[in-house]
Amino acid sequence: MPSNQTYEVIWNPDAVLDLAQYVKYAKTTIDDVYDKTNVLLGKKPYTIGHKVIFKGYEYDGYKWMNVKNVILLYEKFKKEKTVAIDACYYSNKKSAEIFYGIDPNKGLD
Questions:
Q1: Is pLDDT at 105 greater than 70 in this prediction?
Q2: DSSP code at position 43
Q3: 91 FRET partner, CA 20 to 30 A, in 43, 52, 69, 85?
Q4: Cα(44)–Cα(4) distance, rounded to whole angstroms?
């Protein structure tokens, strides 16, 4: 963990694999997403992100944020001073609609 961070940011291996697919669409690099994520979540993760509120969704109650057109789902562990990124989505895909208040089963109607 860099010395200027107060929280360690860790990635679920599945999220890393998904990120590798999405960066080509998001026109960024894995390193850019890692660096920005460490800056944003490594210092004050409790002030960043939005709460996932979608009953029945496996990440209900997690926090999310958009980093370079990649939506990251994470949870923070205050006692361990760790932020765990458990999943990510490309922000322009249908699967990301729930983060913008759109029920993916109903669409925009």
A1: no
A2: H
A3: 43
A4: 11
Is the pLDDT assigned to residue 108 strictly greater than 80?
no
Contact (CB, 8 A) for 22 and 89: yes
Which superfamily does CATH assign the domain made up of 8-90 to? RelE-like (3.30.2310.20)
Q: Could you report the per-residue pLDDT of 3-33, keeping only the tens digit for each?
A: 566 899 999 999 999 999 998 888 899 999 9
**Rounded Cα gap, residues 87 and 47, in angstroms:** 20
Pairing mode of beta strands 70-77, 82-90: antiparallel
Measured from the Cβ of residue 109, the count of other Cβ atoms closer than 10 Å reads 5
Residues in the chain: 109
Rounded to two decimals, the pTM is: 0.81
